[in-house]
Design brief:
This protein has about 100 residues and is α+β, with helices and mostly antiparallel strands. Helices cover about 40% and strands about 20% of the residues.
Length: about 100
């Protein structure tokens, strides 16, 4: 789509979070979240082994995701979260629309 981006980069240098894609001039960070690891409301499954540990892990991941989105928003960034099951072409169009609207 003609957009330039960085892969697996920190949007904010002093904040230890890495986005999957970073569009620096537009201040857009894209995160592709796995259904199991981030508790997808449609596809998340409960672990059979160590269920308590994994349930807590998913809760912590979701809390960290919310904190990341909040910190980025406070710094003037837009955080886009895409579930791994989403159609890549539709997700790319959505990301491109947000990036172009923020230039």
């Amino acid at each position: 789509m003609g957009l330039r981006y960085r892969v697996s980069a920190r949007p904010l240098p002093n904040f230890r979070r890495t986005a999957d894609l970073v569009f620096r001039p537009a201040r857009v960070a894209v995160f592709v979240d796995g259904c199991f690891w981030h508790g997808c409301p449609v596809h998340h499954t409960v672990a059979v082994t160590n269920a308590g540990y994994w349930a807590e892990k998913v809760i912590r991941n979701r809390e960290r995701d919310s904190e990341t989105d909040r910190v980025l928003a406070d710094a003037g960034w837009a955080a886009i979260r895409i579930w791994e099951h989403e159609d890549p072409a539709e997700a790319a169009i959505h990301v491109a629309d947000v990036v172009r609207s923020r230039r």
